[in-house]
Design brief:
The chain is low in regular secondary structure. It contains no helices and no strands.
Length: about 50
Amino acid sequence: MDWTRFEFEFTTPPHVGGKQMPYIGFYLTRGVSNGMVWLDHVEMVEVKK
């Protein structure tokens, strides 16, 4: 299977970046999900408006 590119843009609450650091995560639900996940070149960048 070929790689699938996925991009997601979101807005963080005002307190993120101060005391609370941003993070990237994902969850696989046991019993519902199966298979394999490969991640490559994961990054989070600030987009100035």
